[in-house]
Amino acid sequence: MADVQYASNGKGNLGVTLGAIGTGLGAIAGAGGLAQLLGVQPAQNTDPESRPVTRYEMALIQENTLLKANQYADAKATGLQAQISNQAVWNATQEGLIRCQQEQIARLYTLTKFVVPGTSVMTGSGVVAETPV
How far apart are CA 90 and CA 87, in angstroms? Predict the structure, then answer.
């Protein structure tokens, strides 16, 4: 048989007694506190901001907060839509200007390829020699 050791009667009684006292104090604290047991009334808090709220008040607070969040999001979305619209107008204007410049460049390019005959430029007799540069 294994050697089993038991707590002496004094140690066992002490453990049970301290456990009972701790359990009793925990129950008292949970049921209203030691101050009520001793007859001491806690100071009443008169600050209306620190009172507990009901579930109905909490629901109203949540609805109000959600409404404010939605209004903020809507305002940001409206501002973003305006910025996108302004950007689209600016982009279209720039594209139109670029097309116009491209057409002007194409016309100038065709003018550089236009050759005027030498006889049309110089008057008089003789042959004008055109030599490439």
Answer: 5
